[in-house]
């Protein structure tokens, strides 16, 4: 089958989180299984753009409301990522350094989606499925069905995968003229609670909807930032498919981001060398367990609780562990963490920012990875951690519930807790410190988790069945 993925992110071209990782891997594995998967995304000004060669494959012009603009589609020349990669350039609108965070993000992503469909309408041989990801591309199913201009691609099936339902792309009805002339009877397919809600529209109009883990889909029916009733109503076409991890990128024996690579057989020595590197770089105590957090410093990830958790455990459990945090996000959380540097006794440090290399070294060198998420659609960090022999400490929610089992239960290998509360997380830290004293047990768990299979193979098969169910 032929599948066109439309996404705002794709690793290594541009990544802000898990969406980028998934869109960088899923098409590659689809191709390896004999299908043809392609990706189109906005052309941002990223390193990848300048480091590679491109062919211009299409030039077009279209409009966003009253604004006429021209766009260009370029294609990477060498199939470097294992699939055809197309970047869509709209001068002045998409060609910026960051993926998100601009005041005109609505205009940027709506214009991107319209241009993708304009381009797709001109293809001689059309794909079987258009696969959209998150709200930035979720107006596509509506436009394919109800914008008169795209009548010739109406028959192509569409799928929407929800990586995060917290962000929905809301826009007022005053911007409805952005969407190319559409069947006004269908206004209800755009509307949710008196606004145009792109994510809700995608859920209503796509032929199938997936979430990135089965538990997340269950949770969305009672907690989805206002869309609960819609998820309940549309449950017949929704399914949860757990993300895989790209075993080519995330492999401690070949990872070029880390200086000390290691195989399963070298796990203890390998992790120790990486831990030593981190301890030297961040002034930490090698003898104590190293607990790390990697991610966006936002409430969704429970990051706002970290300063209190860290100071409480230092006080109540004692200075028996190190904490190292990597991330950026809400200024008050960044400040709360930076303030803790004042009380560090070679046992706390924080790196505010986004750093791909450091994240890999932390997965490799840490003893434990903390994920106290309030919401976690799938969560990739815990899977990366396990592949590097690092024990996950997770709140039982979404994909974390589907991938981590508590070491106190039969066959378990992680530390799980029920609430995103300071008390529950701190208790998890206490359990980690106690577990760390039992070197044999830690070693056995490391061995076990490094061998767990979180590869894409089984997830890709589920996507293929879904695509086939549409034809
Ligand atoms: P999200 O909700 O942010 O998408 P995921 O767990 O699905 O969460 O994916 C997070 C991805 O982003 C992982 O690859 C993780 O290593 C990476 N990441 C998050 N924050 C940072 C950071 N500050 N520096 C480097 N990588 C980061």
Question: What attributes characterize this protein structure?
Answer:
single chain; 471 residues; alpha/beta; Rossmann fold; 2 domains; 6-stranded parallel β-sheet; 17 strands
Strand content: 15-25%
Highest-level CATH class of the largest domain: Alpha Beta
Q: Which molecules other than protein and nucleic acid are bound?
A: adenosine-5'-diphosphate
Q: Quaternary status of these chains?
A: single chain
N- to C-terminal separation?
Answer: 9 Å
Average per-residue pLDDT, rounded, comes to: 97
Radius of gyration using CA atoms only: 23 Å
Order of adjacent strands in the largest pleated sheet: 3-4-5-2-1-6-7-10-11
CATH architecture label of the largest domain: 3-Layer(aba) Sandwich
Number of domains: 2
Shape: globular
CATH superfamily of the largest domain: Glycogen Phosphorylase B
Number of strands: 17
Number of helices: 16
Helix content: 25-40%
Q: From the helix content, strand content and strand pairing, which structural class follows?
A: alpha/beta
According to CATH, the fold-level topology of the largest domain is Rossmann fold
């Amino acid at each position: 089958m032929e599948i066109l993925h439309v996404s705002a992110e794709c690793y290594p071209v541009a990544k802000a989180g898990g969406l980028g990782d998934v869109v960088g891997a899923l098409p590659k594995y689809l191709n390896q299984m004999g299908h043809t998967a392609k990706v189109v995304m906005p052309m941002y000004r990223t390193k990848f753009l300048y480091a590679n060669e491109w062919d211009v494959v299409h030039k077009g012009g279209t409009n966003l409301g009253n604004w006429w603009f021209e766009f260009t589609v370029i294609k990477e020349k060498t199939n470097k990522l294992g699939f055809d990669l197309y970047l869509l350039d709209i001068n002045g609108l998409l060609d910026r350094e960051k993926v998100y965070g601009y005041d005109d993000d609505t205009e940027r992503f709506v214009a991107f989606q319209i241009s993708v469909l304009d381009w797709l309408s001109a293809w001689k041989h059309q794909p079987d499925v258009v696969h959209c990801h998150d709200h930035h591309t979720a107006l596509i199913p509506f436009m394919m069905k109800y914008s008169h201009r795209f009548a010739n691609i109406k028959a192509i099936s569409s799928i929407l995968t929800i990586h995060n339902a917290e962000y929905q792309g809301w826009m007022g009805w005053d911007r409805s003229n952005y969407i190319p002339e559409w069947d006004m009877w269908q206004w209800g397919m755009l509307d949710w609670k008196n606004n145009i809600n792109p994510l809700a529209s995608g859920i209503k109009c796509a032929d199938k909807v997936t979430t990135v883990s089965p538990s997340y889909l269950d949770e969305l029916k009672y907690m989805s930032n206002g869309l609960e009733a819609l998820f309940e109503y549309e449950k017949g076409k929704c399914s949860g498919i757990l993300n895989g991890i790209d075993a080519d990128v995330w492999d401690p024996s070949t990872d070029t981001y880390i200086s000390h690579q290691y195989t399963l057989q070298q796990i203890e020595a390998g992790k120790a060398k990486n831990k030593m590197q981190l301890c030297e770089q961040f002034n930490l105590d090698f003898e104590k367990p190293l607990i790390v957090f990697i991610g966006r410093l936002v409430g969704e990830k429970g990051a706002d609780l970290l300063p209190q958790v860290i100071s409480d455990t230092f006080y109540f459990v004692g200075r028996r562990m190190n904490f190292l945090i990597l991330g950026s996000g809400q200024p008050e959380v960044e400040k709360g963490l930076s303030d803790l540097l004042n009380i560090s006794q070679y046992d706390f440090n924080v790196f505010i920012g986004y750093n791909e290399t450091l994240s890999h070294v932390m997965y490799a060198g840490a003893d434990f990875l903390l994920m106290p998420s309030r919401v976690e659609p799938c969560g990739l960090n815990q899977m990366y951690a396990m592949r590097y022999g690092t024990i996950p400490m997770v709140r039982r929610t979404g994909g974390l519930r589907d991938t981590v089992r508590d070491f106190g239960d039969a066959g378990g290998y992680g530390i799980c807790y029920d609430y995103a509360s300071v008390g529950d997380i701190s208790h998890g830290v206490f359990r980690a410190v106690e577990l760390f004293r039992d070197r044999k047990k830690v070693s056995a768990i490391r061995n076990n988790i490094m061998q767990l299979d979180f590869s894409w193979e089984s997830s890709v098969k589920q996507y293929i069945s879904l695509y086939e169910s549409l034809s």
